[in-house]
């Protein structure tokens, strides 16, 4: 606020001004100046924030806002036709890091990023990074999906389990296949049915597909998409959640499920941009269990319901994964119902 009074310049203020000028002219330690203002981060999402995949990114960015002091803004439910425009608006407003999910708008996001080489872009993607500024990540949560399958294999009474997922793309296939592989490890007789709804977010369609599987004899179902847990709850069968801890949706139905924790990824990429050393790279490795990027959700009510031998099997395999003594196969082929 300017009071209209002349404030004399002391030796200290003159020295400070000289230091700032020197930093600006040097071209080197200017990052020290930027550290005084919040890093501007924007996210562009194709689906609503409530969709679990997007929500996990959003939650991690909110944490970065609280713990790392970033300015965070986002746009959700952005259609492919509007994706480029929204990205460009953030770029033109001086955001230094733009992130989000780009699977359905992959080529669009890459074209926009190429027009702003000094801005860092990091998007969910099924393919690789692109120099100089387009980084990628993905939900590599096949390890806890395998552990979840181990539980499903032990808990099924009909020896028929199910998966209701988005669509048969690599990042979905590897979760479905890992889940079934885990089930077969603990129950060689188990069979699995797979249904794909053709959308990343269509709860009514996912529920309908789940009900059809339950009618056919499935008694433990992997809810890779929203809507499945509601069907399991209605029919009184067991469910495995996905992406986040969804026990609250069905406390007596949801046993556990793979959780994707985007915090290690977000923390690392924000730190790189803040330090001025960002490079186009694949950040996918930060989603592995050993990096803290994924884990098995708490059992909640099922901690008392699951047989002790089942919990012991899972705990043992989990420790082997974390120690690097067991590797869950990455199978991205399209799974087929048995």
Structure explained in plain terms:
With 338 residues, this protein is an alpha/beta fold. The chain folds into two domains: 33-137 and 262-290, Response regulator (Rossmann fold); 142-257 and 297-322, Rossmann fold, CATH 3.40.50.2300. The chain is 42% helix and 15% strand. It has helices at residues 11-26, 31-34, 52-68, 80-92, 106-114, 142-155, 170-186, 203-215, 228-235, 263-275, 302-305, 308-322, and strands spanning 40-44, 71-75, 97-101, 120-124, 134-137, 160-165, 191-196, 220-223, 238-240, 254-256, 258-260, 294-296. Strand 6 (160-165), helix 7 (170-186) and strand 7 (191-196) form a beta-alpha-beta unit. The longest helix is centred in the first third of the chain and has 17 residues, at 52-68. The model is unreliable at 1-35 (pLDDT under 50).
Summarize the structure.
It contains twelve helices and twelve strands. The protein has helices at 11-26, 31-34, 52-68, 80-92, 106-114, 142-155, 170-186, 203-215, 228-235, 263-275, 302-305, 308-322, and strands at 40-44, 71-75, 97-101, 120-124, 134-137, 160-165, 191-196, 220-223, 238-240, 254-256, 258-260, 294-296.
Descriptive terms for the model:
alpha/beta; Rossmann fold; five-stranded parallel β-sheet; 42% helix; globular; disordered N terminus
Domain module tally: 2
SSE arrangement, N to C: HHEHEHEHEEHEHEHEHEEEHEHH
Please count the beta strands (DSSP E, at least 2 residues each): 12
Taken from the alpha-carbon principal axes, the silhouette is: globular
Mean pLDDT across the residues is 90
**CATH hierarchy, class of the largest domain:** Alpha Beta
The end-to-end span amounts to 73 Å
* Strand-residue proportion: 15-25%
Largest sheet: 5 strands, parallel
Helix content: 40-55%
């Amino acid at each position: 606020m300017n009071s209209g009074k002349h404030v004399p310049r002391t030796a200290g203020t003159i020295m400070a001004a000289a230091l700032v000028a020197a930093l600006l002219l040097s071209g080197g330690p200017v990052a020290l100046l930027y550290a005084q203002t919040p890093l501007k981060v924007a996210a562009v999402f194709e689906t609503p924030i409530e969709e679990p995949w997007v929500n996990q990114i959003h939650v991690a960015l909110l944490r970065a806002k609280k713990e790392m002091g970033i300015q965070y803004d986002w746009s959700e439910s952005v259609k492919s036709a509007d994706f480029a425009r929204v990205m460009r608006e953030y770029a033109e407003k001086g955001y230094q890091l733009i992130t989000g999910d780009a699977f359905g708008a992959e080529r669009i996001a890459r074209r926009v990023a190429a027009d702003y080489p000094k801005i860092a872009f990091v998007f969910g993607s099924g393919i690789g990074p692109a120099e100089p500024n387009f980084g990628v990540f993905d939900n590599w949560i096949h390890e806890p999906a395998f552990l979840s399958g181990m539980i499903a294999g032990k808990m099924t009474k009909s020896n028929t389990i199910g998966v209701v997922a988005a669509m048969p793309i690599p990042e979905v296939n590897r979760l479905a296949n890992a889940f079934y592989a885990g089930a077969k490890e603990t129950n060689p007789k188990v069979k699995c049915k797979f249904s794909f709804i053709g959308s990343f977010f269509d709860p009514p369609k996912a529920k309908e597909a789940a009900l059809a599987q339950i009618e056919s004899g499935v008694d433990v179902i992997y809810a890779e998409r929203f809507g499945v847990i509601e069907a399991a709850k209605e029919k009184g069968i067991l469910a495995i959640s996905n992406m986040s801890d969804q026990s609250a949706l069905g406390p007596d139905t949801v046993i556990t499920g793979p959780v994707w924790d985007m915090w290690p990824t977000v923390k690392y990429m924000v730190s790189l941009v803040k330090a001025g050393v960002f490079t186009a790279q694949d950040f996918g490795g930060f989603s592995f269990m050993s990096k803290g990027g994924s884990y098995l959700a708490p059992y909640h009510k099922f901690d008392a319901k699951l047989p002790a031998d089942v919990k012991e099997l899972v705990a043992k395999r989990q420790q082997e994964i974390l120690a690097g003594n067991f590797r869950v196969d990455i199978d991205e082929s399209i799974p087929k119902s048995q």
